[in-house]
């Protein structure tokens, strides 16, 4: 009999408080997804290239999990308070019928256990399904053929999800049982007396709004203009000021809502306008702290989801080769490496095999006044032409000696980046023989350079030098073409006039990072041998996977097979897979955790708003019965309640949108959120905005329907409609 009662009560409780039960299922699913991250295909794939970074990422997941449990614990406590208010009369009747408090609390714990088990089953099923969908989706984004997908079930994720969830549920139910144990029968039957509504004075409320607005303004100013000055401490101050400002603003605004009712031109009860405003005011004014907290959570949610979405937009750059050309770069003894790469087992994987030779130019034999080595390069005429091409403000700073350091950035004019790179590199430039670069040009279908003995080409690495088009540098090409027309030499090497070839296509020299240079001189073979500092001489063998093999099997499968063969050979090598894996890791690490926490904050905020409204609805349910006695119709009261739900959600969301916009603007300014003119930007941003709006709409509709049900349960006088 007792077990049937427990099961029936648990079933009724889930039905009447479906919002809370659905949130528990969502929380369980999210716990499993974040804990099973290590079993997902994309993580297993990345472990082969970024094992240390992946281990660090997975090491942070328990922290994220514990933080999520911490937040959910307070949500469960808040929900249990609503449960106690909603079922207080039921508990009081049990006690009047002779049920001992200990037995009642055991029954409450049993009901909670049944609900928790059902939430666990539903959440784990959804979590396993979503984890597989996420894994398949990311794998598909990465490209078919990369990973042979296998359904994976993380036993450890299931175990820790169950343990953590049941633990916080047990602690929360113990606290609820303690509250129930210390309440008397009359308190449960008739409820506690309503607290006196303290609406304060108009002047005091206006001061609260002004103080809150000022604190929010200061927080916004810090975030927008002083965010990076003191980093952590100043960011903490901005968060503290913003949170306090939000609380004060909500407190003052909520208590001033009564003015809208008292100053209303329609002072009649038509449409229950005054009643609606008073109910909304009471819900906000006396719970301003929790309303402010939900606004802060929604603000964090907006910022985190935007950050995660912008990182996900960057997923397209993972598959864009941009300046990358070669798939593999191998180091070692030239003869042995060439012999291995032309062997029978490697030939199917090798195309456009090319030897890259590189080294620095030697200095003059004599030294300068400060005993520093003197450069063989005189590029003063080219330097003058580049300075003349600079915008006037930069030109004045360089000519006056005001600019001492140079930064290479996509925000700089092209001429400034050129000047900065050559100012640093031209004294002792890297040299690349013409034959090495001609091999690269042949691989991309370009004509060879065919340099004359007194001619060179300038190379700028597009991986480190911002350029809109790797085929040309417009400012430099104009300078060089004008000099060629005039027959003018802009540079000399070892006191010999040198002419510079314009419009040289730029590509990455190696597969990944083994050659990290900004610029180099491409020179004829005799000049390379004559000017090379032999102590800096290095060689690299580059090759690509044949296009025919890519068409048949895709790029990644033959790359991984070639990687395995190179690994067994013992040669030091790098591959495009490392670059690919590194980019993919940044996307995964930057989007998984931020999107997870963003949606968790959103769900918690919506649930708190929903339960807070339903709690007030339960406490003030008698007012609707009184309205019916005064002639109000059922539909009127439901419309009034629907407006209250709408305003209850809109108030914290409105302030959160302002704060979130400020936070997003600051993160864009400091390049923490990268949003570029990308074809995927608007569709993805729109999709995430729709998800956020849909989440809040679902909670709002669920609250309205639950409140409708509460109104329908009231006793109505005959023929009320």
Largest sheet: 10 strands, mixed
> How many angstroms separate the termini?
41 Å
Number of helices: 26
Arrangement of strands in the largest sheet = 3-6-7-5-8-4-2-9-1-10
Beta content comes to 5-15%
User: Which structural category do the helix and sheet elements fall into?
Assistant: alpha+beta
Number of strands: 10
Based on CA atoms alone, the radius of gyration comes out at 35 Å
Instruction: Give the % helix.
Output: 55-70%
Mean pLDDT: 80
| Shape type | elongated
| Unreliable parts | none
What's the helix and strand layout?
Layout: H1 2-16, H2 18-35, H3 41-47, H4 51-86, H5 88-96, H6 101-142, H7 155-181, H8 185-190, H9 202-225, H10 232-262, H11 273-285, H12 288-313, H13 315-319, E1 328-331, H14 334-341, E2 351-360, E3 377-378, H15 380-388, H16 392-399, H17 414-425, E4 430-433, H18 434-443, E5 455-460, H19 474-486, E6 491-493, E7 496-501, E8 519-523, H20 525-531, E9 538-544, H21 547-553, H22 556-569, E10 572-575, H23 576-619, H24 621-629, H25 634-669, H26 681-713
Parallel strand pairs: 4-8, 5-7
Antiparallel strand pairs: 1-9, 1-10, 2-4, 2-9, 3-6, 5-8, 6-7
Helix pairs in contact: 1-6, 2-4, 2-6, 2-7, 2-23, 3-23, 4-7, 4-23, 6-7, 9-10, 9-25, 10-11, 10-12, 11-25, 12-23, 12-25, 12-26, 23-26, 25-26
In short:
With 721 residues, the chain is of the alpha+beta class. Helix content is 65%, strand content 7%.
Describe this structure as you would to a colleague:
- The chain is α+β, with helices and mostly antiparallel strands.
- It is 65% helix and 7% strand.
- The protein has 26 helices and 10 strands.
- It has helices spanning 2-16, 18-35, 41-47, 51-86, 88-96, 101-142, 155-181, 185-190, 202-225, 232-262, 273-285, 288-313, 315-319, 334-341, 380-388, 392-399, 414-425, 434-443, 474-486, 525-531, 547-553, 556-569, 576-619, 621-629, 634-669, 681-713, and strands spanning 328-331, 351-360, 377-378, 430-433, 455-460, 491-493, 496-501, 519-523, 538-544, 572-575.
- A 10-stranded mixed β-sheet has the order 3-6-7-5-8-4-2-9-1-10.
- A hairpin with a 2-residue loop joins strand 6 and strand 7 (496-501).
- The longest helix is centred in the last third of the chain and has 44 residues, at 576-619.
- 37% of the residues are buried.
- The model has no long low-confidence stretch (mean pLDDT 80).
